[in-house]
Automatic annotation (TrEMBL):
SMART domains: GRAM (SM00568), TBC (SM00164). Residues 862-889 form the EF-hand domain. It comes from Neolamprologus brichardi. GO terms for biological process: glomerular filtration. Its main location: cytoplasm. Involved in vesicular recycling, probably as a RAB11B GTPase-activating protein. The keyword Calcium applies. Residues 483-670 form the Rab-GAP TBC domain. This is TBC1 domain family member 8B. Residues 1014-1037 have a biased composition (Low complexity). Gene3D superfamilies: EF-hand, Pleckstrin-homology domain (PH domain)/Phosphotyrosine-binding domain (PTB), putative rabgap domain of human tbc1 domain family member 14 like domains, Ypt/Rab-GAP domain of gyp1p, domain 3. InterPro entries: EF-hand-dom_pair (IPR011992), EF_Hand_1_Ca_BS (IPR018247), EF_hand_dom (IPR002048), GRAM (IPR004182), PH-like_dom_sf (IPR011993), Rab-GAP-TBC_dom (IPR000195), Rab-GAP_TBC_sf (IPR035969). The lineage of its organism: Eukaryota, Metazoa, Chordata, Craniata, Vertebrata.
């Protein structure tokens, strides 16, 4: 590897280098401790220095220095891991540089030319390398060490590296932490003690920052049941963020099958960089805070002041710019932020150079003035270009007239919230306005209070703005806590969730979805139909066809839009409430915002998101309710009881008139609002929960509490309000007002920060997914153990190997067939499956004999034989049953397995078989549950196969069967005797067949043909004993042509009886296999087999 020329003053310091070659201008040196005679104390010292220190001269065991005869200064220009690599560089210098150097007169000119040439070579290499790092030279050196020490496949992309200490027991090892796309690696070498650690990100159970008495601050990693601690990191927070992002990236890509098409920095696992990872983390945080669509990425950040008209002062904060949004968030504790879609910007006024300020004019005759912006001119130009605005004064006049138009025609301002003309096929009114229209003349105290709330919000709108560019402040939250008026609920939900932006940028999208999904029949639509009448059945809106039809359309359209989620229980309850206060199209976009942004991974078969938030909730209980924790050490009870709280946002446990207040807070503060309320509920019932004796009593206490929650300010009539389950017992329980409960939740637990919640989500997601994966593994092992003779520990290791092989096919590509067909919603056995290539590599590591090479035709036949459902994929049970037969089966069963390999349809031409496999893999579509049920029924009814059920084997198949036996025996210590035994059995079977045919035929065939047939069989067996599988392919076709004149076949009983008479063959197949050794060897070689592929 060429290096940026670096001056070395003492080339022989400490005598660490030995000169191998030299000439007038260059010296090739070898590091002591490497190569020939590299042992002893020198080797230990040099190895330790190479690991601990970070210097160019200590990167690789070979280097090339440049010098001139009249100078004592040497320059390092190349290094190499192997002698072959450094010799290539040396030869290139000899052929291309040495002749040129004689032209120069002075040493300075020689050195200047060499340095320029080397820099040119490095620059040329950099053009083909997409790695963009802060210090390319050091990064290339680190990548060299990474490849040398860990021997991972060349596709593996190093992201970054750090110097740190790894605690092995109570002893710290100083070394280097390497973070790559798929692996966390550590290497240390101190005085002969080498420490090497390689952990794949998909194996992590825990990743967190910790501190204790010994380690002030460290990063804790839990994998394979072992704890690993990394400390003494110079940039611990940066390191942790990168590790967190890489682990999250691996989980999303391998378990969630996310393709990152909208995130170019992550779309190719071969091109992941530290810069891309950090940018993605910031964009993720940016989108979460401002509730922006997933397509948005954070492009620029500018520190500035924003003039806040309602407070009459400038607030310090940051301008965040994405492709389609200009956002501002304060940093002075005022909790003020504003979101301006670029589509709303009508002008950017000429910047003020004196105060470095610019003014952004938006629809509705409003303007935002940003001052003290360092790069204000460029920011103004960027905003103009993204909005398509020209800087000409003519445009300013037209924009002013546009503002005046909106001022004169306020009804047109509704365009800014994306309310387009909808199709007549969908409902254009919120169900609450249809089934409970407000009576303007009603002077009921509750209605008066409702009017006062509306007035408060109108005053707020006049001060802070209304619509997409409204200021969000503490006052906004205070109004939310007090309750949103019925008439404004739908509008505010759209605004706070960000759904208003989705709707504005996708006009007509929902109508198209409804038309496309109309009449489709899927598993999701069947489940939707089943649950339609279970959605708020007490509410009049869902006792009529109007409400039911709207609910059907929204749920079906979403299932059509996002088949990955489809439909999940609890979505019907949530959507019902959304339809009460929002128009049908608005309800659809609200559902999109909830399922895809605000509650990620909630609505799928494994409800991972809800389980993760329950784990976050447990952490918050430990932190905020220590008294409850002391009494109830097992907090899993709260996980089970709170599942419906998270899945339905308390809608399923609270009366509808109270639950909507919770939904108000959720759309403003996200999951933080639900966590706060959950803590407040437990705190309110603390004494009762502490005094209860069992879980059932605790559940009863909580149910009675929820039944007693009321909304004293709700203007809804009794016919609309939801009847509580425990109305009869309400007299014995003091009623609690929902507004008071929410206010108490904000007062006591409002200090929970959204950033902490998101960090806790990532930390707990690893544990939740690995727990689910472990449950899957235990279920699979329990099922498979009934059909095989492997021990539980052996099955555990086999499963880990099988799963790792599945992931090895996914690590370096986004389009792996195994990854595309991985579906966690399938039955346990079908979740991880291997295609032919993956199976072939794993089987070659585990098969008991040496016959099955990766590209072997036999490997394909084994695959086709055990692929019972012929879908081109092998599940774990099929794989284990085959191995069980080959490892622990009787002589008869092993022979039967080999015999069946040579029967049709298993034995096809290799090309045709592989083609059919690829067609099956690419053609596999949605899961056919009926086919699964039929397959399950067939397995139950399947009777035990006997040897009499096997068909006869013809002459071509028998010759191939003989070849297989020869290949199996090849390399065995008893190879010669085994070959003779096969030849003897082949000859005997052919003679037996000939005798049988003579007895059955009325007249004997010509004598000349009898010995010819026999001789052909004997010759073929003799030739096979001295040929390899490759060469025997040719002979088999020749033999089959000779024998085609006379058709003959054998039954399995004949073959078995003949082979049983050969003690050498019987002892070979009955020889026990060291299963544990095989598993250990496969575990070590699995990753290397990918490397050497």
């Amino acid at each position: 590897m060429w290096l940026k020329p670096e001056e070395i003053l003492l080339k022989n310091a400490f005598k660490l280098w030995v000169t191998e070659k030299d000439n007038e201008y260059f010296v090739l040196q070898r590091r002591r401790g490497y190569g020939e005679g590299g042992g002893g104390l020198t080797g230990l010292l040099v190895g330790t220095l190479d690991t601990v220190l970070d210097s160019t001269s200590k990167v690789a065991p070979y280097r090339i220095l440049h010098h001139t005869p009249d100078s004592q200064v040497y320059w390092s220009i190349a290094c190499g891991v192997t002698k072959e690599e450094i010799i290539q560089h040396w030869d290139w210098l000899q052929q291309n540089i040495m002749r040129t150097l004689s032209v120069f007169d002075s040493s300075e000119d020689v050195t200047s030319f060499v340095q320029g040439k080397i820099r040119g070579l490095i620059a040329e290499e950099g053009k083909t390398c997409l790695v963009q790092e802060d210090d390319p030279e050091k990064f290339r050196e680190a990548h060299l060490r990474f490849e040398k020490w860990f021997e991972l496949p060349p596709e593996e992309k190093l992201v970054t590296y750090y110097s740190c200490s790894y605690w092995k027991g109570k002893v710290p090892c100083q070394g280097w932490l390497y973070l790559s796309t798929n692996f966390l690696c550590f290497y240390s070498y101190l005085l002969g003690a080498e420490v090497k650690l390689v952990i794949s990100w998909d194996e992590l159970w825990r990743l967190e920052k910790t501190s204790n008495v010994i380690l002030t601050e460290s990063i804790h990693v839990l994998a394979h049941g072992e704890d690993h601690y990394f400390s003494m990191l110079l940039h611990l927070n940066e390191t942790f963020v990168i590790m967190e992002q890489l682990a999250d990236y691996s989980i999303k890509r391998l378990f969630d099958k996310e393709s990152f098409q909208r995130e170019p920095a992550l779309s190719d696992p071969l091109q992941i960089t530290k810069r891309g990872i950090e940018a993605n983390a910031k964009s993720e945080q940016f989108r979460t805070f401002f509730r922006l669509p997933k397509e948005e990425n954070l492009l620029e950040v500018h520190e500035s002041f924003l003039w806040v008209p309602f407070s009459h002062f400038n607030t310090l904060g940051k301008i965040c710019l994405s492709e389609n949004y200009l956002c501002f968030a304060s940093q002075d504790g005022s909790q003020c932020h504003v979101i301006i879609p670029m589509r709303e910007v009508v002008n950017v006024e000429k910047p003020d150079s004196s105060s470095r300020a610019l003014t952004v004019c938006v629809r509705g005759k409003r303007a935002l003035r940003f001052s003290e912006v360092r790069d204000y001119q460029r920011l103004a130009n960027t905003i103009r270009s993204r909005c398509g605005i020209s800087a000409s004064p003519q445009h300013s006049a037209s924009s002013e007239s546009l503002i005046n138009h909106f001022e004169d025609n306020p009804e047109d301002v509704t365009l800014m919230v994306g309310q387009k003309d909808s199709s007549k096929a969908v409902s254009t009114e919120a169900l609450m306005t249809v089934f409970h229209p407000q009576d303007v003349e009603n002077l009921d105290p509750k209605m008066l209070k409702e009017k006062m709330k509306e007035q408060s919000w109108n005053i707020h709108f006049s001060e802070y703005g209304r619509g997409t560019s409204m200021f969000f402040t503490r006052k906004t939250r205070d109004l939310i806590v007090r309750g949103v008026p019925e008439a404004l609920r739908g509008e505010l939900w759209l605004l706070f969730s960000g759904a208003v932006n989705d709707m504005a940028t996708h006009p007509g999208y929902y109508t198209e979805l409804v038309e496309q999904s109309l009449g489709t029949s899927t598993l999701a639509t069947d489940e939707i139909e089943r649950d339609l009448h279970r959605s708020l059945p007490e509410h009049p809106a869902f006792q009529s066809d109007t409400g039911i039809s709207a609910l059907r359309r929204v749920l079906t359209a979403y299932a059509y839009r996002n088949p990955k989620i489809g439909y999940c229980q609890a979505m019907n309850i949530l959507t019902s409430v959304l339809l009460l206060y929002a128009k049908e199209e608005e309800a659809f976009w609200l559902l999109v915002a909830v399922c895809e942004r605000m509650l990620p991974d909630y609505f799928n078969r494994r409800i991972i998101g809800a389980l993760v938030d329950q784990a976050v909730f447990e952490d918050l209980i430990r932190e905020n309710l220590p008294q409850l924790v002391e009494h109830m050490t097992d907090l899993s009870f709260f996980s089970s009881v709170s599942l419906s709280w998270f899945l339905t946002l308390f809608i399923s446990v609270l009366p509808i008139e109270s639950a909507v207040n919770v939904v108000d807070c959720f759309f403003y503060d996200g999951i933080k609002a639900i966590l706060q309320l959950g803590l407040a509920v437990l705190d309110y019932n603390m004494e009762a929960l502490i005094s209860c004796h069992d879980d059932a009593e605790a559940v009863t206490i909580l149910n009675k509490f929820f039944d007693s929650v009321t909304n004293k300010d709700s203007p809804l009539p009794p016919t609309v309000q939801q009847a509580s389950v425990g109305n009869n017992d309400k007299a014995s329980h003091i009623s609690v007002d929902i507004s008071e409960l929410i206010r108490e939740a904000y007062e006591k637990y409002g200090n929970i920060r959204l950033e902490e919640v998101e960090s806790s989500r990532k930390r707990n997601k690893l544990y939740v997914i690995q727990t689910l994966e472990d449950t899957t593994k235990q279920n699979v092992i329990r099922v498979v153990s009934q059909d095989v003779r492997f021990s539980a520990s052996q099955l555990d290791e086999l499963y880990n190997l099988f799963k790792r092989q599945h992931f090895l096919s996914c690590y370096w590509t986004m389009n792996s067939p195994a990854l595309l067909h991985h579906d966690p919603s399938l039955a346990y056995l079908e979740q991880y499956q291997l295609g032919f290539q993956q199976f072939s590599m794993l089987f070659s590591l585990l098969e008991p004999w040496a016959f099955c090479s990766i590209k072997s035709t036999l490997s394909l036949w084994v695959f086709r034989l055990i692929d019972e459902n012929q879908d081109g994929l092998i599940n774990f049970k099929e794989f284990c049953c085959a191995l069980d037969t080959l490892y622990t089966g009787s002589f008869t069963n092993k022979l039967k397995f080999l015999f069946k390999l040579h029967l049709p349809p298993v034995q096809k031409s290799c090309g045709a078989a592989l083609l059919s496999l690829s067609i099956k893999l690419t053609g596999r579509g949605k899961v056919d549950l009926q086919a699964y049920l039929k397959q399950w029924q067939n397995e139950i009814l399947k009777k035990e196969e006997t040897i009499k059920d096997l068909p006869r084997i013809n002459q071509t198949q028998f010759i191939q069967f003989s070849k297989t036996l020869y290949n199996i025996f090849h390399g065995d210590p008893e190879e010669e005797s085994l070959y003779r035994a096969v030849a003897h059995v082949t000859s005997l079977l052919l003679r037996m067949e000939e005798v049988g045919r003579r007895l059955q035929e009325p007249s004997s065939p010509p004598e000349s043909k009898k010995p010819a047939n026999t001789t052909a069989g004997e010759e073929s067996s003799t030739e096979e004993s001295s040929t390899t599988p490759e060469s025997s392919d040719t002979s088999s076709s020749h033999n089959s042509q000779d024998l085609s004149e006379t058709e003959w076949s054998f039954s399995f009983e004949q073959v078995l009886a003949s082979l049983l008479n050969e003690p050498a063959i019987v002892s070979f197949f009955e020889r026990p296999v060291d299963i544990q050794m095989k598993l250990g060897q496969a575990k070590v070689a699995q990753l290397k087999s990918k490397t050497n592929k």
